[in-house]
Amino acid sequence: MSGRAQLMWDEAVTGYDFGSSHPMDPVRLALTMGLVRAFGLDGAVDVRSAKPAGDSTLRLVHRGDYLDAVRAASVDPRAADQSYGLGTVDDPAFAGMHEASALIAGLSVGAAEAVWRGRSAHAVNFTGGLHHAMPGAASGFCVYNDPALAIARLLELGAERVAYIDVDVHHGDGVQAAFWEDPRVLTVSLHEHPRTLFPQTGWPEETGAGAGEGGAVNVALPAGTGDAGWLRAFHAVVPELLADFRPQVLVTQHGADTHFEDPLAHLAVSLDAQRAVMTACHELAHAYAEEGRWVALGGGGYAVVDVVPRSWTHLVGIAAHAPVDPESVIPSSWRDEVYARTRQLGPARMTDGRTPSWKPWEDGYDPADRLDQAVLATRRSAFPLRGLLA
Question: What is the DSSP code (8-state) at residue 137?
């Protein structure tokens, strides 16, 4: 294994642009890479691009007729076929949509290949994590499902056990659907409860089917969950599952939209807790994945100045074994870039000023507590299917 992490980046990803009124502003990607550079992290990783995913790769997850529909919409956005989820309010069609989406997918597939082939133990594509796209439809701001494509490519290369951990505020429905019956893939999603948030899936009773029964695990968190509850739920579910499954590769999705400033959801998680989960995923990769193989992806996140760049810069630093001190003052050069691009003032430090802590599940639970009820529902639904105690 190479001693350096790999960071997948290509300026052309900012072409994934649904328009000026859409919450998924590609400036969040440019600002993240700018902050990575401002802290010198581009010197601590191997920065690589990759070819856009071709049809043979995209067809590992997506239907051919859907690929044709995306291409047609890319050429003439006004003719987008809404039966494929294209040209909708969530997923407006735009010129070059196929090319930009295939590039993001190619970067995630390239990250997976680098880790599997031993070029790097860790690889990051913060432009990816588009976990809602289905085999035949765009959904939830996602055109091609790059996490599922990365996992499918790992399986194609010979992987027999891949674990996927999704901590985006929204359920990782597209990845779960792609591997619903596949025992080689364990999907775990921690997200806001489907009663209060898109896509209204991710109930604890969703556990997979057929040979994949027990391969889907969902933790549906009450709206308003903050740092202590979020971290408690993560540590009450994820480490035990990974210790049992022993994946060859760990793939994680780090949507930053769990943050209390995010405008599209209702959790109350801080940047500092997000960083704590990133650190935990890094440690879990070294503890349970073969040779520490870890592919880390971005995802949602719509506080595009205050939250997303800081969160994913922490992710890059952790993967590079060069973590950024939360108390670090953000370089003025980056704050100048923020103002030039957005006319907003950027944050001053790499912290929200929180010191995250949580009560371990092993210390007991309160059956009347809503967070503990959510964890109990998950453990009772999924754990026995894997031979684990609820």
Answer: B
